[in-house]
Amino acid sequence: MQQTRQQPLFPLGQVVATPGALAALEKAGQTAQQFLSRHVGGDWGDLCEEDRKENQLSLERGFRLLSSYHTNAGDTKLYVITEADRSVTTILLPEEY
Question: Could you tell me the pTM of the whole model?
Answer without folding.
Answer: 0.92
